[in-house]
Amino acid sequence: MKKLQLFFKNHPFIFAFFVLIMSRIAGLVTVSLIQMVRPDWTIASELGWLLMVIYAGTVVSLVYWADVADEIGLRKPTSKKEWLYYIPFLSIPLFILSINGVSSWGFTQNMLLLMAAIGVAVNEEVLFRGLLLRGFMKWGPWVAIFVPSLLFALVHSTNVFVGGDPTFAVFQTIWTLAAGVLLSAIRLRANSLYPVILLHILIDGVEYFSTGEFGVHSEAFPIITLALFSALNAILAIYAVILFYKKQYHKNQAVAENTNVI
To answer: Disulfide: which of 98, 145, 153, 172 matches 177 by Cβ 3.0-4.6 Å?
Structure first.
């Protein structure tokens, strides 16, 4: 067992693929067992939230089992002051609120929407800004920021093949690329996954409570709304990259000064 754990620690991409496959197997097996008892329950309605929670629980469990939780960022941010820099990112959920508002869908549905938001955020952040980012850090922080973000966008682009509105899917690919860059830059600056997980939960939670659904959106949205949301994410991605660059620059300067002193 120890050898397997060490193998996964030394091969982050293989471990990321292993975690992805095992979490999907755990989720789909659980859903299949439930559907044997309740064949009328579907992933699109009653079981989607549960699938997301099982994905997240399996991913986190495997990360702790392999003893890479600290390495991928499941630790507190380096400074409490860091949270002040993240205030502008609240404009993303505020934008969603300004367009759709938030509704109450009844206690049960509200809880399912909340659980889905938590499950999706934990699952995606641990996979993309945790495991994959750690693997790509081998080629430097800029590769680690942009390559997983591109993969993040490509994954979301597939929503068009499972019933998503095509126009929405195109713009979603654009803003998830920007959001991926944004979240990756925050992850590296804060040296922690917690800020990006919380931000992701907040964004998805507001989205889910504004529409009453989670996952794939089949309804069309005005193109101007989608374009403005994409632009907002792009601007905030630039802001996040600048924040990371400034911290990286000061860190390199400090290292250079210490080297000169020695």
So the answer is: 153
User: Tokens for 128?
Assistant: 């993309």
For residue 100, what pLDDT is reported? 81
pLDDT digits (tens, 9 = 90+) for 7-49: 999 999 999 999 999 999 999 999 999 999 999 998 877 898 9
How far apart, in whole angstroms, are the C-alpha atoms of residue 125 and residue 179? 11
Domain residues of the chain, as ranges? 78-261
CB 120, CB 52: distance < 8 Å: yes
Q: Which residues contact 227 (CB under 8 A, 6 or more apart)?
A: 171
Three-class secondary structure assignment of the chain: CHHHHHHHHHCHHHHHHHHHHHHHHHHHHHHHHHHHHCCCCCCCCCCHHHHHHHHHHHHHHHHHHCCCHHHHCCCCCCCCCHHHHCHHHHHHHHHHHHHHCCCCCCHHHHHHHHHHHHHHHHHHHHHHHHHHHHHHHHHCHHHHHHHHHHHHHHHHHHHHHHCCCHHHHHHHHHHHHHHHHHHHHHHHHHCCCHHHHHHHHHHHHHHHHHHCCCCCCCCCCCHHHHHHHHHHHHHHHHHHHHHHHHHHHHHHHHHHHHHHHC
pLDDT value of residue 127: 97
